[in-house]
Specification:
The structure is a homodimer of 157-residue chains.
Chain A: H1 9-37, H2 41-52, E1 57-59, H3 60-66, H4 71-83, E2 87-91, E3 99-103, H5 105-125, H6 132-150
Antiparallel strand pairs in A: 1-3, 2-3
Helix pairs in contact in A: 1-5, 2-5, 3-4
Chain A binds a DNA duplex (30 and 30 nucleotides) through residues 30-31, 34, 40, 42-43, 59-61, 64, 70-77, 79-80, 92, 95-99.
DNA sequence: GGAACGGAGTTGAGAGTTCAACTATTCCTG
DNA sequence: CAGGAATAGTTGAACTCTCAACTCCGTTCC
């Protein structure tokens, strides 16, 4: 473990700005969905991914990775969503270890009801405050970060 | 409530990219601090702000806003940190409603021990994957978002 | 000066997340 | 094909966070 390369003043400001914006932003997204639709953002994401899958059905592990959830988080979440009648779990025919999660009609309706308020919030807090150039920059920045994060991990090179 | 202005394909990609990068990034930051230093990122932030304050002491409400915590979250967090011996709460002399939170020597030591691993992670996942131009762009983007988020709120204009 | 209002902070219940341990099945390899 | 390793998913406990009361103190305004 070599000596730490501390952040210089510029980096410090960038980091704190990014941290503040992201925390505040995601807190707002969370609150909007909770108040407006009675579900957490993680559940919303899970339902979105299911709604886009063929037959509105996915294997649990697929669903975990596309919705950026850990397996455990997904298990708990799907259990709750199943109680609520939004999702149905069935054993996977080809792999007896597996489970398929399917979005029910009630779940889809819930998602459709939640979407407008959510999109409004994203638009008003993100796209409405950025120029088109900034939007493209943000996308490239995020892609670069995501690429790094998708590596197994490998601490330092 | 007017008709929803849905995201077009480009906006969709930007949004999902930002979402994925941020979720993965903050999950990693959280995990690194938890494993490397045994404390959540929220606690780390609280300790950082205290460490920078005169006398390493701040009013609870000041601390809540600078550390991006709700009052309730901060109360719970400081209670735990006090049990751990990292923080000390004392009544505020000038306002009997208030409380001052002070970072103890043990808390400061803990923070110093946690910092290198945390900074390494931030550098390796954020700054090492961005050009200097991208870093500046990210700062401006974040500042714009934070400015919007700091408004009382006001849904649509 | 006493009642109403607002600010500071805490508390407890409820919900989501994480972590580690666990079961069950499938894959791999000698 | 037997046995170990890896994969899929679940579970329960511990922890953090949120929300809605609630207390206590200060401020204001008749």
């Amino acid at each position: 473990m070599a000596d730490t390369r501390w952040l210089d003043a510029d980096e410090q400001k960038t980091w704190r700005s990014y941290l503040a914006a992201s925390r505040l932003f995601f807190d707002r997204i969370e609150r909007q969905l909770q108040h407006g639709a009675g579900l957490p953002h993680a559940y919303y994401e899970i339902m979105v991914r299911l709604s886009e899958a063929p037959g509105r059905t996915l294997r649990m592990s697929e669903l975990a990775s596309t919705s950026l959830s850990s397996r455990s988080r997904l298990s708990h979440a799907v259990a709750r969503m199943e109680e609520a009648g939004w999702v149905l779990r069935t054993p996977c025919p080809t792999d007896k270890r597996g489970q398929n999660a399917a979005l029910t009609a009630a779940g889809f309706a819930r998602l459709e009801a939640a979407a407008p308020g959510h999109v409004d919030e994203v638009r008003s807090l993100l796209f409405d405050v950025l120029t088109v150039e900034q939007q493209h920059a943000l996308r490239e920045i995020s892609d670069a970060m995501a690429a790094r994060l998708a590596d197994g991990h490998l601490g330092r090179p």
